[in-house]
Amino acid sequence: MGTKGREVPRVVCCAIPITSAARKVLVITSRKRQDLWVLPKGGWESTDGVLEAAASREALEEAGVRGRITRFVTTIKSPSTTYHFYELEVSSLDKEWLECKERTREWVDYAEAYRRIAWKPELAQGLSLSSIAPKR
User: Fold this and answer.
1) Which residues fall within 8 angstroms of residue 65, CB to CB, at 6 or more apart?
2) How many CA atoms lie within 13 Å of 49's alpha carbon, on the beta-carbon side?
3) Which sign does the torsion angle of CA 42, 43, 49, 51 carry?
4) Quick one: pLDDT at residue 135?
5) Residue 39 pLDDT more than 90?
6) Residue 108 in contact with residue 19, Cβ under 8 Å?
């Protein structure tokens, strides 16, 4: 079963934390596999209201990122999950955050961010459609 036991695919909201002036992306380590890098993402909760709020909440919880969603990037569907990607222009980083003892965060350029998250095709595809991706 493609939905991993659920009747409908899981809704996941993903933040692409950027600083457009420096053209950098903030990537974080996975909690499950510390040797792998990801973008902040997680399940939409009914208390979030809108999808953008979930992306912002996940960025704060997982990476200590504060900022504002500046644009919807894309929706990517897989058999078990529907991913919604949003660019988040970072205004500040908290020194301590909910998952700071479980994750590392790092600012990198687009090419390095893409290289690090390429193991997760949905994340790489979402990033490739962001405003800091090279123009095709």
Assistant:
1) 15, 17, 26, 40, 59, 88, 90, 93, 94
2) 4
3) positive
4) 83
5) yes
6) no
